[in-house]
Design a protein that fits this description.
With about 160 residues, this protein is α+β, with helices and mostly antiparallel strands. It contains 1 helix and 9 strands. The strands form 3 sheets. It has a 4-stranded antiparallel beta sheet, with no helix packed on it. A hairpin with a 3-residue loop joins strand 5 and strand 6.
């Protein structure tokens, strides 16, 4: 009998929430959304923030970035140098329970390959659903100069 009351109570709660959801916005405030029957107005591109290097960093020219070095979300990657080219950096991506690290896995006279590793827990656990894009910087054995930078990414469980 207790189960029936729980199921009926849960159903009533969901029904009430669904009825209120169309009239009240986040936090109980009236929604600014137009009614579903109105015709949509003109659309525009979303206001996307364009990343900049952290203080003291200088973005490398596009010609020095390997075109395959897009970030995880498909956007053009920003890479910068610091310390007269001795440090190379980019923005990584991490979330609730994950952390991003970087290393220079290859340095030749023509190229530098950075590897960003997002480490996630091996066992499932409760994590927040936030995303962070921290700067990840790597010291080079010699200044970047005119070498090409390739950034690769991987995810590993630990």
């Amino acid at each position: 009998m207790r189960r029936i009351a729980t199921v009926v109570g849960t159903g009533a709660l969901l029904l009430a929430m669904a009825a209120c959801g169309s009239e009240v916005g986040f936090g109980g405030q009236p929604s600014n959304q137009p009614p579903a029957s109105s015709t949509p107005g003109p659309t525009s591109e979303p206001n996307i923030a364009i990343p900049k290097p952290p203080e003291g960093g200088t973005a490398i020219p596009d010609k020095q970035l390997n075109p395959a070095s897009q970030d995880m979300d498909g956007y053009k990657r920003l890479v910068w140098t610091k310390d007269q080219g001795a440090t190379v950096g980019t923005y990584g991506r991490e979330g609730g329970c994950s952390k991003v690290t970087g290393e220079a896995v290859e340095q030749t006279d023509k190229t530098v390959k950075l590897l960003l590793t997002e480490t996630v827990p091996a066992k499932p656990q409760a994590c927040t659903m936030d995303m962070r894009y921290p700067p990840v910087e790597v010291k080079l054995t010699k200044p970047l100069g005119d070498r090409t930078v390739t950034v690769e990414q991987k995810t590993e469980k630990k």
